[in-house]
Amino acid sequence: MKILIVFATVEGQTQKIAGFVEHQLSASGHDVQVFDTENRTSPVDLEGFDMVVLAAPVHERRHPKAFEVFVSASREDLGKTRTLLLSVSLRAAFPEGQEEAWDYLTEMKMRTGFTPSKEMIVAGAVRTDSYDYFEKQVLNNVVLGGRKVDLVDGVREFTDWDKLRAEIDAFCPEL
Question: With a threshold of 0.90, does the pTM exceed it?
C-alpha cells in the first residue's frame, strides 16, 4: 500500500510521532512518504496514495496554520482516500482534558471543512527548555493545572506509544 504522512510540528513531538508512524508502516511493508507542511517549496500530489495520515499539534487551541491551510486546500483530494487524523495535545494526556482536546479537533474540522475517515487525539510532550517565562506560566497554571510532572532534561513525553501503535495497526492492516 502507498501511504502519505502529512505532518506539522512546533516543538518536535509531532515530528517524532510522524517518524514512529512511518517506521511502523514501513516495517509492515508499505511504501511510505512523509511531507512536512512547513516545506512550502515542495508540492505534494495526493494522487496514487491509498491512505493518508495527518498529524499536527495543538498550541493555543489551534493546529499550525500551514497544516490547516494544507488540509483545507487539499480537502477534496483527501476526501477521495482513507485518512487518519492525529491531533496531538497535552490536554489529551489527562482524563479531564480529553473533552477539550476533542474540541480542538472539532474546531479544526470546522475551519478546514474536512472530516477524516478516522481521528484520534494523542497526548503530546512538555519541553520546558524551549519555553519562555510566559509559556512556562501558561503550561504550569493552565495546561497542567498545577500538576507537578517529572522532567528528564526538561522533557516529559505523555504519548502512549502502545495505543498509537494499536490505532495505526487497526487503521492500516498488514499487507
Answer: no
